[in-house]
C-alpha cells in the first residue's frame, strides 16, 4: 500500500480562531493506538473543547474525541483519553516560558495526516474578550461590503 503524500485534514477547530487570538502555531505528532488511527482514517474525530497542557516537560492533549472503531473488539480505545503530543525539547521549553509569562493557552487548530502520520496543529493563543470578537465581526462585515461594491463597479452596475 503506497503512502499518501501531502496534507489530508481529518478535523479542524473552526471556533478556535473566533475565541482566541492566535500568536504562534506549532506542529506536533501524537501518540495513538491502532484503533484510534483506524477511526481517524474514517474521519471520526472532533477537536471541540480540546486543549493541551504541559505536565512535567511533556505536552498532553485533553478532551480530544476520537470515536470508537466500529470493527474493534476489546482492544478498542477509550474515547476521550489524554494523549501525548510529540515535540522537540527546545519547542516545549520555549512554550513553557511563554505560557508561564502571559495569560496564554495551547489550543489545537487542526488534525491531519501528513505523509501517513497523524499530526496536530497547535496554537499558542490568548482568549478574546467579547468586545474583541465584535470588532472582528465588524471588520469582516466591512471588508465584505467593500469587496461587494468593488465587484459591482467592475461589472458596471454601481
UniProtKB/TrEMBL annotation:
GO biological process: trans-translation; trans-translation-dependent protein tagging
InterPro entries: SmpB, SsrA-bd_prot, SsrA-bd_prot_CS
Entry's localization field: Cytoplasm
One term under GO cellular component: cytosol
Biased composition range(s): Basic and acidic residues: 139-152
Major location (coarse): cytoplasm
Matches recorded under PANTHER family: SSRA-BINDING PROTEIN, TMRNA-BINDING COMPONENT OF TRANS-TRANSLATION TAGGING COMPLEX
Name this polypeptide is given: SsrA-binding protein
